[in-house]
Automatic annotation (TrEMBL):
Keywords: Isomerase. This is Aspartate/glutamate racemase family protein. Pfam families: Asp_Glu_race. SUPFAM superfamilies: Aspartate/glutamate racemase.
């Protein structure tokens, strides 16, 4: 079994879900009392949130590289970043270590394509919805047609993430707001919806959407187990 290196704390609410899913999935596959071999470096999210909103991405890159190096020195065989937004710094992370990074967008896109969908609606932080590091990877590497909410809806999605979900707050009125935003994406042709922030799965469930939801937290965590249990001789 390979050792999974997790960069978490962005927020710890979703990182806890990663830990739970990874261990449950490992046990489901191996049985007995098996669990995953993993290391986690967990940030103080207050600092990360401040730097994100101040646009201090170079400082964030240095923090992410140091976290990855700590995990590599600790014996991790590959890196999993437990957040969509911080994949903006994926190239910085991979340049700092000799072990691979399992990018969150790739298993998500493969699952979507295997389901036969091409036009996807993307929910996430404003950084994920508006910048190209995530949408561009889905479009250019995987050939998906990505649509995002309009400006007002993007603001609502972002604020609920940072003011509620990262604190573990799940409010019925926020779930309803997300339902309405999802419905508007469907009206614009979305065949499915990517929950492109790892905290959204705390709020939105399958019954909240008329089209399939692709929860990046679960997909990424299961992909980490796939990699951890893959033979070193398997391409």
């Amino acid at each position: 079994m390979k050792i999974i290196g997790l960069i978490g704390g962005m927020s710890w609410e979703s990182s806890a879900e990663y830990y739970r899913i990874i261990n449950q999935e490992t046990n489901r596959r191996l049985g007995g009392v098996h669990s995953a071999q993993c290391l986690m470096f967990s940030f103080d999210f207050d600092e990360i949130k401040r730097l994100q909103h101040d646009g201090e991405w170079e400082k964030l890159a240095e923090l992410m590289k140091e976290a990855a190096l700590r995990l590599e020195r600790g014996g991790a065989d590959f890196i999993v970043v437990c957040t969509n937004t911080m994949h903006r710094l994926a190239d910085d992370i991979t340049s700092a270590v000799s072990i691979p990074l399992l990018h969150i967008a790739d298993p998500t896109a493969e699952r979507i394509k295997a389901s036969g969908f091409e036009r996807v609606g993307l929910l996430g932080t404003a950084f994920t919805m508006e910048q190209d590091f995530y949408k561009g990877r889905l479009q250019q590497r995987h050939g998906l047609d990505v649509i995002v909410p309009d400006e007002d809806d993007r603001r609502v999605v972002h604020e609920i993430i940072y003011k509620e979900l990262v604190l573990g707050q799940v409010r019925p009125e926020s779930r309803q707001a997300y339902r309405e935003i999802i419905a508007r994406l469907i009206e614009r042709g979305a065949q499915c919806i990517i929950l492109g922030c790892t905290e959204i799965m705390l709020l939105v469930k399958d019954e909240d959407s008329a089209v399939p939801l692709f929860d990046t937290t679960t997909i990424h965590a299961v992909a980490a187990v796939d990699e951890a249990l893959r033979s070193a001789n398997t391409p």
